[in-house]
Design brief:
single chain; alpha/beta; Rossmann fold; four-stranded mixed sheet; 20 helices; Mg_chelatse_chII-like_cat_dom; AAA+_ATPase; Ribosomal_Su5_D2-typ_SF; ATP binding
Length: 484
């Protein structure tokens, strides 16, 4: 036998595609050719696979070898095809009967010693295989727990190439994946830790209830960062669909915890102000990886000291905030990642940032305008809630008898508000106020009475309010309004 075929999965963004790995041996000088739009990591697979096969006690076929990855028009990235390539090569050389691997997806990178190493993106790969009708998968041991999350797929774990060969030849069973740990949400920072700031706390609750973006402006030490870090603690746990999306993104980024299981807590990302554009929105050579805005999908992206971020990085957020996804175009193709986030910006009012606020500010009015001007008008126009956080008084900071509401209490109200919003907007296919398109809000039955929008219309006509700002205010007002 000189031809063999096994199954793998290629990943472009979050979309997986079933890939047929073909191997053919022909007479001629020993050589190995890989076709099917492989990247550099795949071209280097010839050396990894050769060493892994020899060090696993098998014979390398000294013939002309052609490997083809179908569909040939789909770009192939990464080292996850190593295990499938090795199996196809041994099958085409007649050393491995491939009938037990019929309808089985093989995923894993090979070390030179034959060990099957973990790879990124196994969860969305196995999910893609399941959608294509494949019900069995063999993955690295360290990826087995996340792969087992996908229902309807029988997952087995291979620690070495030798174990896979023994399974195919002799029926030696492969390891079952470890049991998926029960999903628990560990307690995080609590809103009760925040002293005072009743107005900002109320803004945080409104933000959580409607899924709105938030800007916190005030001098240092007023609790802006504490408030932002506690926003996830009052958000509802992710449902199955959202949890699968978030877990898949973290799998692609290689950030899943070893225990596996779906991520139920809304993610929180707080990149440093020196973060580059690719770090924020995604990028990198070859397959563009998700950035902080996608890793915060269904959660919170917090930009502390927002004016200190580069202008390019801040402006790159405008499109994801508007569309809820990131589209990364590259020479070899485009990649799309979801980015439905709540953005929280925190900023000092001026460069000197005196803790006592404006009374001791040494900055000129021009310097203050320039500093906050780093947050462009179009970006600020996308922020639904903008709050000034005043300095704390000694009585607020030192008072021990009265503590603010804990996150658990506020989370109950947020969940009730979101449930009401989901019921209210079910007819138009949305669940959160922040997701509502402007035209929906401006048409019956959800249009506010004319008497309630007189001032808004006046400001819109005078140019002091944009159309986007008009819709933003209506979205916030709609949290308290139900049509008759």
């Amino acid at each position: 036998m000189s031809y063999a075929r096994v199954l793998g999965v290629g990943l472009v963004g979050m979309t997986g595609h079933l890939v047929e790995v073909e191997a053919d041996l022909a007479p001629g000088l020993p050589a190995l050719t890989i076709s099917g739009l492989p990247d550099t990591a795949l071209h280097e697979a010839r050396d990894r696979v050769r060493a892994a096969i020899v060090n696993s006690g098998e014979t390398w076929p000294n013939r002309r070898i052609t490997l083809n990855l179908l569909p040939a028009t789909l770009p192939k990235y990464g080292s996850a095809f190593d295990l499938a390539i090795a199996a196809a090569l041994l099958g085409s050389a007649g050393q491995l009967p491939l009938l037990p691997l019929e309808g089985v997806v093989l995923l894993g990178e090979l070390g030179l010693d034959g060990a099957v190493r973990p790879v990124r993106g196994v969860l969305p790969m196995v999910a893609a295989a399941a959608r294509a009708g494949v019900t069995r998968a063999i993955v690295p041991v360290r990826n087995a727990t996340e792969a087992a999350v996908i229902p309807g797929v029988q997952v087995r774990a291979a620690g070495t190439l030798h174990q896979l060969v023994a399974f195919v030849r002799e029926g030696t069973p492969l390891a079952d994946p470890p049991p998926v740990a029960a999903t628990t949400i560990a307690p995080g920072p609590d809103l009760a830790d925040v002293a005072g700031q009743e107005y900002a706390r109320r803004a945080l609750e409104v933000t959580a209830a409607g899924g709105h973006h938030l800007a916190l402006l005030g001098p240092p030490g007023t609790g802006k960062t504490m408030l932002a870090e506690r926003l996830p603690s009052i958000l509802p746990a992710l449902d199955d669909e959202a949890a699968l999306e978030v877990t898949a993104l973290h799998s692609i980024a290689g950030l899943l915890p070893p225990a596996g299981g779906l991520l139920r807590r809304p993610p929180f990302q707080a990149p440093h102000h020196t973060a580059t554009v690719p770090a924020l929105v995604g990028g990198g050579p070859g397959l563009a990886r998700p950035g902080a805005v996608s890793l915060a999908h269904r959660g919170v992206l917090f930009l502390d000291e927002a004016p200190e971020f580069s202008r390019g990085a801040l402006e790159a957020l405008r499109q994801p905030l508007e569309d809820g996804h990131v589209h990364l175009a590259r020479a070899r193709g485009a990649t799309e990642y979801p980015a439905r986030i709540q953005l929280v910006l925190a900023a000092n009012p001026c460069p000197c940032a005196r803790p006592v606020g404006d009374t001791a500010c040494e900055c000129s009015p021009l310097a203050r305008r320039r500093y906050l001007g780093r947050l462009s008008g179009p970006l600020r126009d996308r922020i639904d809630v903008q709050v000034t956080v005043p300095p704390l008084r000694a009585a607020q900071l030192m008072e021990t008898g009265e503590v603010g509401e804990p996150s658990a209490v506020v989370a109950v109200r947020v969940a009730a508000a979101r449930s009401a919003a989901a019921e209210r907007w079910a007819a138009v296919g949305h669940r959160l106020n922040a997701e509502l398109p402007g035209p929906v809000l401006r048409r019956p039955p959800f249009r506010l009475p004319a008497r309630d929008t007189v001032e808004l219309r006046r400001r819109l006509d005078s140019g002091s309010l944009s159309a986007r700002g008009f819709d933003r205010i209506i979205r916030l007002a709609s949290m308290q309004y139900s049509p008759m």
